[in-house]
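@channel sequence for tomorrow's demo:
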Amino acid sequence: MKNLEIRSFGGDAAPTISERTIEGYAVVFNQRSEVMIDWSAEEGLRRFVEVVSPTAITENLLQQSDIKALVEHNRQRLLARYNKGKGTLELTIDEHGLRYKFEAPNTADGDYAVEMVSRGDIEGSSFAFRVNNDDTTWAKEGKIWVRTINKFASIHDVTITTDPAYSQTEVSVRSLEEMEKPEERQEEIPKPYKVKIEKLRMNIH
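structure tokens (generated this afternoon):
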């Protein structure tokens, strides 16, 4: 799906489990992401961090949504579903973010989720979303831009994921410290295949 973005969180957003009940935070408010790269900026490559405002998700948005709980954003690996306020997936907005909770189904993927979360091999939560340009604001802080998402146009899924650190920085291949090294300051034209890979990481086509 074009323009569908994904973001992930670890730490206190990671999924936890009690028997077969899995819960965590798919979205965390007011937390800065790692440095990412916007390849579509008119002025060229734009390095930025992202923050989700508490205004980005409302009960009204959820009530209009059909949101699936998945394994690694794979729509063939369904764990639960929230369909306009009903279903097996529970979604709750609080001051920290968007919390999800579901009972793992008695399926191969449900058993997989229980085992991998219990072992700590799955330690991240992720979500897929769309946002309109008018619902984001940009502010520059030194060499880095801050993109604030004030409102989501839609949320499509919540996901348990094995690698939140990589997913959270999925549109970036270098850390801020690496970007600031003198040898990195020289402008370099990205190789076509790298541009393609980075665009695929930013959007799901």
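heads up for whoever presents: The mean pLDDT is 82.
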